[in-house]
Amino acid sequence: MNINKVYFLCSNTRIDRLPKDNMPEYAFIGRSNVGKSSLINMLVQRNGLAKTSSTPGKTITINHFVVNDNWYLVDLPGYGYARRSKKTREEWRMMLNSYISRRRNLVTTFVLIDSRIEPQNSDLGFMEWLGENNIPFAIVFTKTDKLNKSELEANLDAYKKRLLEDWEELPPIFITSSEKKVGREEILDYIDQQNAELDDMKKTKGL
Ligand code: GTP
Ligand code: MG
Q1: Cβ of 203: how many Cβ atoms within 10 Å?
Q2: Of 1, 10, 17, 67, which is least packed with CB atoms within 10 Å of its CB?
Q3: Which atom of ligand 1 is found nearest the CA of 81?
Q4: 64 contacts 10 by C-beta, under 8 angstroms
């Protein structure tokens, strides 16, 4: 997929103020500092479009970007950031959960996982919640440039093995590095394919 046009549309903390749900939407979520905003910038090739920071907790709102006048890309706050108060974390969790479970045009939620660390309960629990709520998701392993090939393979194998303890089959998995621009085509092709399937469905329904 070529990205011909991308722009920031709006930031929200209230889900009753989100933009119209008239285009397919793809959201990027994961623990604070995992690389959500960096990945979005890498995908659309616009450094600085989504705000990044080496300090966790940078993104604190639901941010909508419009791509090719055709679909929404959404940057979300991280979950489980320990340095925020318990009350703030709980508020964010509720905002994220209600956004994800109520947003009708959300096609795929991309769950970002730092490829360097072992499976975390917060990520596994979040994916379990997605499954229970029938919300389609894919996994994106981030920061793979920080590992060598054998370390990466070992970590991915261990992660998949852990997932298969809970799941009968694995979700789509993407291996990425925003730093080295790895995984861009794969994610964009996947989104393209989902958009095409939705178009076909609309056509057969005569919409
Ligand atoms: P919050 O908005 O705070 O939840 O963080 P985020 O998940 O949006 O992370 P962000 O994109 O702001 O990146 C966090 C830090 O990780 C920044 O210092 C990035 O430069 C760094 N980073 C992100 N992706 C990569 C990557 O692929 N490779 C390397 N080496 N660093 C990365
Ligand atoms: Mg961010």
Answers
A1: 9
A2: 17
A3: 4
A4: yes
Cα dist. 149→22, 106, 112, 175, 193 in Å?
42, 34, 19, 12, 29
| CATH tag for 6-194 (out of 3.40.50.300, 3.30.70.100, 3.30.70.20, 3.40.190.10) | 3.40.50.300
Question: How high is the pLDDT of residue 83?
Answer: 67
DSSP state of 137: E
Q: At 184, which helix (H) or strand (E)? A: helix 184-204
Q: How far is the CA of 25 from the centre of ligand 1 (A)?
A: 22
Q: Tell me the three state secondary structure of residue 63.
A: strand
Say what the pTM is: 0.95
Q: Report the pLDDT averaged over residues 5-11.
A: 95
